[in-house]
Amino acid sequence: MFNVIALILALAGAVEESSAPRTVSELGNGVWQIRFGTPEAFTPNVFRECEPRWEALDRLPKDALIPFDLNGITGDIRASRTVVSIPCDEPDSHIYGFGLDPGAFDQKGLRKWLSVCASVVGKTGASHGPVPFYVSTRGYGIYVDTARVPFVHVARLARKDAPAREPSADQAALSTSEKELYAACKAQGTRQVVFDIPGNTSGIDVYVFAGPTVREAVQRFNLFAGGGCMPPLWGLGLKYRTHSNAMEEEVLRLAKSFREMKIPCDMFGLEPGWQTHAYSCSLAWSGERFPHHQAMVDQLWGMNFRVNLWEHAYIHPTSPLFAPLKDHSGEYLVWEGLVVDFPDPAASKLFADYHENELINKGISAFKADECDRQFIDDTTPFNYPYFTKFPSGIDGDQMTQLYGYLYQRSILSAFKKKGLRTWGDVRATTALAAPLPFNLYSDAYEFDQYLRQLVNASFCGLLWSPEVREAGTREETLNRIGMSSLAPQMCLNIWFMPHPIWEQYNRAKNEKHDLLPKEEQQAMAGRIRDIANLRMSLLPYLYACFFRYREEGLPPVRALVLEFPNDPGVYFIDDQYMYGDALMAAPFLRAAHERSVYFPADCAWIDFRTNKKYPGGTKQTVQGDPGDVPLFVKENSLLPVATPVERVARDTIFDLTVCVYGDTPAPMALIEDDGETYNYERGQFNRVILAWEKGKIMVTREGNFPETRYRINAWKKIQGE
Amino acid sequence: MFNVIALILALAGAVEESSAPRTVSELGNGVWQIRFGTPEAFTPNVFRECEPRWEALDRLPKDALIPFDLNGITGDIRASRTVVSIPCDEPDSHIYGFGLDPGAFDQKGLRKWLSVCASVVGKTGASHGPVPFYVSTRGYGIYVDTARVPFVHVARLARKDAPAREPSADQAALSTSEKELYAACKAQGTRQVVFDIPGNTSGIDVYVFAGPTVREAVQRFNLFAGGGCMPPLWGLGLKYRTHSNAMEEEVLRLAKSFREMKIPCDMFGLEPGWQTHAYSCSLAWSGERFPHHQAMVDQLWGMNFRVNLWEHAYIHPTSPLFAPLKDHSGEYLVWEGLVVDFPDPAASKLFADYHENELINKGISAFKADECDRQFIDDTTPFNYPYFTKFPSGIDGDQMTQLYGYLYQRSILSAFKKKGLRTWGDVRATTALAAPLPFNLYSDAYEFDQYLRQLVNASFCGLLWSPEVREAGTREETLNRIGMSSLAPQMCLNIWFMPHPIWEQYNRAKNEKHDLLPKEEQQAMAGRIRDIANLRMSLLPYLYACFFRYREEGLPPVRALVLEFPNDPGVYFIDDQYMYGDALMAAPFLRAAHERSVYFPADCAWIDFRTNKKYPGGTKQTVQGDPGDVPLFVKENSLLPVATPVERVARDTIFDLTVCVYGDTPAPMALIEDDGETYNYERGQFNRVILAWEKGKIMVTREGNFPETRYRINAWKKIQGE
């Protein structure tokens, strides 16, 4: 199934006793597949959205070495499970990845449990986007292609037959406190990463991605997935989700108030109440709450608002989709609704066609695909089908639970693709190889630290994380959350449980009781939100270019610092700062803070985006700021195009740009100019607008055959930093 | 393998499409086995301690009916799991069981996850003693014989092809609050109990136990297991576990102070520090802390204290057992120690022989088998071997984790049995068919409500639960905890983390800082503890008789009220009161309370054990009492033999009894008289001392051939209740 000249290498030499027969194939530049037995019929790779981007992979470094013999990878296929072991003989290395992981960053020594999961489960990596992929700072990545739920022992197991070790210094002969007991085994780690995959009894593919650093390993993984997604330009504006009980007049009133108050906004999200029935979903407009829904959608279009509809894929008996899907669904119901058998192409098409004909054709631009995750073991509410559910396609319930969100996205996306339109959705679960899918993950959990860590961790595995804002106890935290959201792939205020806009009252309980802020505080709050959203809008052309790089090079727009500075040990534990594109480093204030410590990576100086204060690399310093102003630093020798903020992005929007020149020898950068909403860029309909600093001024070069101009470069300014 | 005339009934009629071929066998009176495919080689039944007690089963009611066709039970064996469905078409029935379950009592509508587990996990039934057995108030029990971790859907799944149902009243068309959403499906429950058993891919045995009520179903299950265990008589006295760092002088000093203060105590428990190394365990005496350990053990014996040693079955390289067990252990280490391959008879014998020769022969009477449970998913400390561990016996790590505590008990017990001695141990994990094992379960969790619920739930599944006392924030709660422990199978003060006895300071932090209670408070506290322990000692002959009944009839000494009053709907939700033998009902005060509501079951009156106040059956009333005085009620028309408390039970102890006569027509009861410490009772060396109320006085009849008298019936008193 790969568009590749596969080199099937029959392995010379003995295979280890416990390992199943294997085939090693070099699939492309720095990408190997090691096959044990017969892989299962339902894995992320089987349902990949795109072919790997082999030609883009070819542009990455050649001959990057893997620091161990690929024959050292073993796969043991047993009656109830498959066990894959990967060498990890690197005492000083660090390991990152495993998906969205809210709980852990540096993964060594941990036991992961890579389940799609609605809850945060310690440091297990159970999350809305678990991915059986990791990278090592020794410069490689490993992906195990499974839709089962693996336990992964990351360099922590002690084999009986391992060479004798010195007892660790912290291990006394007698441990009597609980603390001593459970700390006693740090030194035990063997030098392997072991995937224990219960339920897989036939075989598996393991993929190895070369470096030379974590950065290129991640790029290769994302390009293998098909490259990063390209959002519509309007998707990068603010999304506001309205109150769950909002009726059409209320939605229109709120939409108008955004324009009147000049708070930028590009998308309105409607919650379950747009339907005649939820939960489960009818996917049909409620005549009671939205009697003139088509007129409302048209009016919103007229104000340049896109509409995003909440839904889930459990289909209520009153839905027009119920009868057609009855024979294309699982044997058990969820919330009395059918569970769509997405792996069955007929089921996926029925679902997609309905969305196309009934919703997309009538002006809907995106969907929020909710409740497609897996409940944790301690949760006995009825939101999941049982894991043994049978589906007509033959997938088993366990695999389905891991893949449901992923396949759900693919079905929705196929409807948009058929119409040649991009979309920018929300989804509550995904898995590996999701980089090409234009959906942002979100969560019911709401811990500030975890939101930030997920933003960082998402960058290792081809995921997009939306640290949406729902409420906060204080003004400061509300603004800090909005600030962080503004410097994420998607900016989203998800105000579904508040009857009033968040600037009228950020406290949920008070908002629900209509106990609003004093008028002047409301205005001040709205003003701050406008400022924050305007900052995002001013960075929109820059962000769009970052996404294009995600697509072309597999380099995500938001990045852990270790992806940018793989050789600076100072960043190996930093999970609360990140690169926002090539030029910017963000270091959000946590909770209600207005001060924090920031590490400035070693190989360059940094200039505060707001104050122009300069910080030398390799230092850690305390910074202050106003709530909502995420500390933001420009890497010296960068060009940063800053736009005059627009309130919304229309097909004909033209951005006025000022190029900020940081340092004396800035590298050139390329903006991307296209229609912003179709797939014509895939057929070459785009321009690279290359900005370069030459002889003391900005040179602009356009390459490409998109006939329109969307960026006017009006000015530049040189910023030295102080 | 059964000592039974099995009626192998080839089933007439078609087997359902999804069900594997089956064999139905009637194994004994009211016990059926339904076999699907080929059962696995490692299950609780394969490792049963005793043969079923078929002759005792024959004394239970004959021809009790199962309210559904046994052919309605299906077993579906798949590539990654086996799914067993049992009819449950009983809208008004209640279901109990699934083992120790700290979180739930009435099990209908829940999803269980029957994992041996160190943590409390909501209402899943994950616990130190999960048991895939349940009973229905319709009068039957079902046991699924597996050492896998099943999910059990207890009458909660909604099949797509089920007949259409009316929407439930609480299900609105539009649910928008979280509460509505997750409550929306109560009416969905289909009428099946479904066991989903991942990892079982070959087949399974399902056992059905007849009633006519839950009581007889539990009796049959316990008799099928081999009947309840018979503790040594001394085991029913108080056990005190000493501080983890205690050295031999301290242990002896404390032992003497018990005798000086006349607080009854029969057993001293030593914590990890008795060994040269822990964690993992050397199982060898520390010369440093216990230089004269044999003399100490002998001295304790001289004061009639039994010694119980803490340990776990992860064997440290410095242990004499390490070399012999190296080839009889799993491939991975825990705390650097070997994991014993207990299913291998050679491994179990090596372990047992070491205990016999080095410890039991030198005066040790019992062991506390710790850390043999399974860590929960969120726990990444290194206390478990990985679930894929291979063992020479062929058991896989998943099965081993479920069976480790069970097999550990069996190994220890075999050493005592070989010497003809009974024991009374502690264990941190067990599973089904454990009724014959004389070990009490305990836990690191410490919620008062859960401790009480576990005491009640243990009674459905052949388990013993020890609500041990470790500390408490207040004097009242400390005493209430000690009170509850005194009315449990084992009374245990587990003071391992306090350097001073609990009566000198019940607050852990203060005790650790040597911040003790004022002297007079210490004395008062010691006095209360003495009183509570004396009450237990006065009930010791009664309790011993209850255990004998457990052995002979499968009726546990501690019982949920529904086991005693299966036809009184008033008890169907009561998980905080219990029968203590046939005559007594206990209703512990929770936490620091000194008042609570008590339900008095319907078919008789109840007399307060302390005040003689009489309560009519079928009522709910508020009762008060002093902290530590568990409200205790005698069922009218009972004979309750009360002993003059002794401080400890020796081989030659004779109990002086007063028979309390409650009501005008009390039923006779039988005390059991034997040596109290060997297995000679199994060969008939015991007396039934039958007490009967005839013509206004107590008649005593001795039946049996035990030559000694251990009970002197000195007096009786008639108590009417007021």
Structural account:
Two copies of one chain form a homodimer. Helix content of chain A is 21%, strand content 24%. Chain A folds into three domains: 7-160 and 185-225, Immunoglobulin-like (Sandwich), CATH 2.60.40; 233-548, TIM Barrel; 552-722, Immunoglobulin-like (Sandwich), CATH 2.60.40. The first copy, chain A, has a seven-stranded antiparallel β-sheet. In chain A, strands 20-19-18-15-14-13-21 form a seven-stranded parallel β-sheet. A six-stranded antiparallel β-sheet of chain A has the order 22-23-24-29-26-27. Chain A contains 14 helices and 35 strands. Chain A starts with 6 loop residues before the first strand and ends with a strand. With 722 residues, chain A is α+β, with helices and mostly antiparallel strands. In chain A, a hairpin with a 2-residue loop joins strand 33 (687-694) and strand 34. At the A-B interface, strand 11 of A face strand 11 of B.
